[in-house]
Amino acid sequence: MLSRLGSLLAAARARGAPSALPPEVLSRLGSLLAAARAHGAPSALPPARYDSAVLATLSGVLDRLRPAHPIGALAPGDRLDGRRCLVTGANVGLGRAVALELARLGADLI
To answer: What's the CA gap between 50 and 31, in Å, rounded?
Structure first.
């Protein structure tokens, strides 16, 4: 895990820090990563659990550095007939709008 965090940090430095993270923040992250390695932090941690608050924080910050990939959209002719969809909060706001759109496309709502 530490090697993965290190490679993500190196990649972020190579492409230049995003405007939300100034270079001094990336430098501090590098220092924290080096300190975690120096204190014998395990290099292979399970993906959903961290033995150190420092590693969990580093992982979260580095996740924010990764470029986001679009998830795609439905084409105008796509239908959801025969599909069941569960929408939480479907009585108000965004949940309602999503539920109405799914119903319009033919989905069975739960």
So the answer is: 18
